[in-house]
Amino acid sequence: MDLSMTLEDIFLFAFGLVAVGGSLVMLFAKNPITVALGLLSVLLATGCTYGLMGEHMVATLQIVVYAGAIMVLFVFSIMLLNLNNLKFDLAWPRVLFWASVAGLAAFFALICINVLYFFQSKMAQHQWGEFTPEKVSELGGNARVLSQALFSQNYFSFELVSIPLLIALVGAVVLAKRKLN
Amino acid sequence: MFYIDHSSFVQILAAFLFCIGLLIVIFRRNLIVMLMGVELLLNAANLSLIGFSHHFSMIDGQIQAFFVITLAAAESAIGLSILVNLYRHIGSINTSDTQLMKG
User: Fold this and answer.
1) Thinking of the domain A1-89, which architecture would CATH place it in?
2) Residue A89: its pLDDT value, please?
């Protein structure tokens, strides 16, 4: 077992650290714009993690759709609401907050143990699919493989997901145009 | 002993982000921050899906993540327009000001 760190390990660890820091900023920041910046750093760090794993298509989508479009929407509505007289809104009793932090920490520890055991097991060592990085690069890259799967075997879901998008579009326009009495 | 490789690191990171997102949704009172917590939850689920799909050399998880990203965009658009409407109604987006179920 090789315990020395490669450059990839270091980058993965750094992106993980950025994501953890951004999520903690999101939990404890007072101003919504600070929370939005924390979310942006988390999204960029996870996008970089996808890129590091070689999933370039999803990494690009993450940057364009999540860190681009959705974040612009959030920042725009923060600007539109023009929030002032902010007070820190972790308004629950302190005991309850730390009790749930302890509960979630126990939950997190359970997940960690489970994950570590799972990746030691035989089932995790077995290679289930055929799309190894070598095969993917031989087939013409991650984007091409993913698009072919999307437009052949998953094309019904691909068309179906346009219906929620259309409904969301119409719904957002209707909600925005509604007159108040 | 355990040796944390890439796949388990990604899974543990996803679990951590999910826990923090849950705490944000439960404890913050600002609705816009709660919506961002929901985005964080979806992002953590995406990270887990893509980590597993990379580990097992499959691409189904990535396709699933693609649909999750699409639906997250739709969800945030609807959520934010509801929020703007709520702000125009009651002039606040704190959940403590929205306890009455009447318009």
Assistant:
1) Up-down Bundle (1.20)
2) 63
